[in-house]
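Go through this:
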Amino acid sequence: MAKAYVQRDTAVTGKYYVETEGGGDTPAGGIDYSIEEQDTGLKWIDGKSIYQRTFTTTTGDTGDNTTIANLTNIDTMVDMKGYIKGTGRTLNGYSNVNNYIGWYYSTETFNLFAWYPNAATFHGKEVTITIQYTKTE
C-alpha cells in the first residue's frame, strides 16, 4: 500500500490534497472554507472524523479578547488558524514582548476566543478563524 501525506493546497484555496508516494495529488474531500460545518474526509489519530468550520466576527470595543463561538460538541481541537485585521496591518499567530494575537478553546466554558492587545488598533476589527476538530458524538 502506498504511503499518503495530507497537505494544504499551496494556492491557499482551503482545499486538502493527498500526495501519494511516487507523486501525484488527489483531492481529499475538496474542503473549501465555509461558515458551515464540513466533514474534511480526514481522520484524527483516534479514528474520528475531522470537521472544519470558519467563523468571522468583530473584536470588542474594549478589552483584550472576544468570544467567537460556544461549541459544546468538540472532543479534540485539532487546529486553529486565523487573523485579525488591525489598523494598518493584518496579523495572525503573532507574538512579541509587547503584542500578541492568538486563539484558544476553553474546555471549561466551551468558548472559542480570540485574544489580542488591549489597544484601539485592535478594537472593532474583523477577526476570522478556521478550526478543525473532532466531535464528542
Summary: The radius of gyration is 17 Å. The chain has two domains: 1-32, 35-135. Confidence is low (pLDDT under 50) at residues 1-14.
